[in-house]
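Hey, sorry for the delay on this. The queue was backed up all week. Below are the sequences that define the complex (chains, strands and the ligand SMILES where applicable).
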Amino acid sequence: MRRSILMAGVVLLAGISALAQATGGSAAKPEATISSFDLTAIDKSVDPCNDFYHYACGTWLKNNPIPADQSSWGRFNELHERNQTILRGILEKQSADTLGRSEINQKIGDYYYSCMDEAGIEAKGTGPVKPAIDSINGMTDKSQIPAVLGGLHRGGVRAFFGFDAEPDFKDSKVDIATADQGGLSLPDKDYYFKTDAKSVELREKLEKHIAKMFVLYGESPDQAAADAKTVMKVETELAKGSLNRTEQRDPAKIYHKMTVGDLQKDSPAFMWNQYFTTIQSPTFDSLNVAVPDFMKAMNQVIANNDLDTAKTYLRWQALHAAAPMLPKAFVEENFDYYGRTLRGAKELRPRWKRCVQYADGDLGEALGQAYVAETFPPEAKAHTLQMVHELEAALKTDIGELSWMSPGTKKQALEKLSRIDNKIGYPNKWRDYSSLNIVRGDAMGNSLRSNLFEFNRQLAKISKPVDRNEWGMTPPTVNAYYNPLENNVNFPAGILQPPFYDYKADDAINFGSIGVVIGHELTHGFDDEGSQFDADGNLRNWWTPQDKEQFTKLEDCFVKEYDGFVVVDDVHIKGDLTLGENTADNGGLRISHMALLDVLASNPEKTVDGFTPDQRFFLGYAQIWCENMTPQAARLQALSNEHSDPMYRVNGVVSNSSDFAKAWGCKPSAPMVRNPACRVW
Ligand SMILES: [Zn+2]
């Protein structure tokens, strides 16, 4: 569980393929630095008090259409592309020059070479996925399902459920085994049951996509159509037992520690010990069964259907997981559904971008070392840490001044704040990949071995003390997160770059952009979810009933505000799904502005380009959210993502800020002045 600044999906397009060939030889040069504060982005024909987002971003939006291989295009994407270009340079160098490489450079170089070797991948056909499919087809009895599923999980196939190690919510110093819901091909449970035309269409197209994947593997069209129906039926049954995204935000709904014996009683058709034996799990007595109803649903699927039904579902899951490293026809079919239909992208991203993404995903802390050396000097790390301390001081003042919170609860909140650990840029200790074998020319094998390496790494953590130095994001990632179970904030080097952060830029802009990002993550410790965990990262109520009641009432203001925002057609933002993020955006902006005022008090700044420091702060904030999205992507985000639409991340937040109204001289009746304004922190 972790709460980030933006949807992970912005950089992870599931649909993938190979229209553009890599040039192979020439190492790409990073593009020019992206500017922090962009005067040319502003549309002066818009009144900032009417619609601040279109004032700050209007011209940028007009001049930056969505590239054909993307489903959205914003400032995050600009930085992501710049990071990708740097990573490409590193990977091309290490893949071309095979003499005298260090161990990690051999791994990243040969991984990338193999991924880029489309001719080699084409020549192998479906051979690389055949062992997985054969293991499924070879079953003669349902009792073999746990062992076969265990084998698939080891190779990264996410069928039925997910299994890994996570901190025990109530004793967060120790990792425990965790079995969670999983095994669905659509982004959320609700997609299986909604009856509006768009949802029905998405399901029909998914069924067609599944059938096409079966045909590509060699099934007859009739058989494939029947099998696709079976997969949809199984997934719908699994979805019935699943929680939706909003429900999953409630820690109480995803924490059910039980003995292996009790889990076995709930799912008698699935022999858990066979599964644990196959995956070579260490022994343990109890585990977190995050969603018990899901395991019951899985049990019903296995018990109430014949073996062929389970086989068909597992074959689909295996093909789906393997698609990126299979021949072009699979890659393009995968893109057609997950890229084009679900997200509205027109073209597949060039192969090199996908291979950079996979290398980052599988070998992120090997590749990240070179990225950090190139982009993140020690002074940037030191300056970021200083900003985090300034933001923490502002949040401390803010909590101290709250009128709705009693002294006893404040004391607890301040204790929690003082113990937040700040992790900046990259891990203190890099992950050891020495046991992972990367073979030049074996793209699928490298992917399978990387998945097994990660799966085993998770298993090794069971019943061990939690390593809080570990990172949940790789260094080049353009994102950040707060982890409530560890009470720490994490800012990868990838986001500590222009336009989010420029340690040479003026304070007003830096506090408006990266300062709000830092404030956002700190505030996650105190949103509707984070506030349920204490300073140690344990799920424990530290609130008086009266304070909790007040808190919930104030949060409700945000729920109602964001429920009112329309994203596309009749699709509204879900105020409850996005509550934590909206709380973090609003609190983050407020405390970052407080921190800026503290800094300006001793180091005043002038008006620049006609904008006061306050105005530059708000422009700096708004401009990190300039973003064009396809209607499909906007819909997908509103329905299944915890983060609000970019326009409302700006207008929803600034309209609650009296500092904003003051900075821009907005009248009380202006659209960007909410009355009453919502505020928690
Ligand atoms: Zn967040």
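Residues 7-33 have pLDDT under 50 and may be disordered.

I'll add it to the shared folder too.

S.
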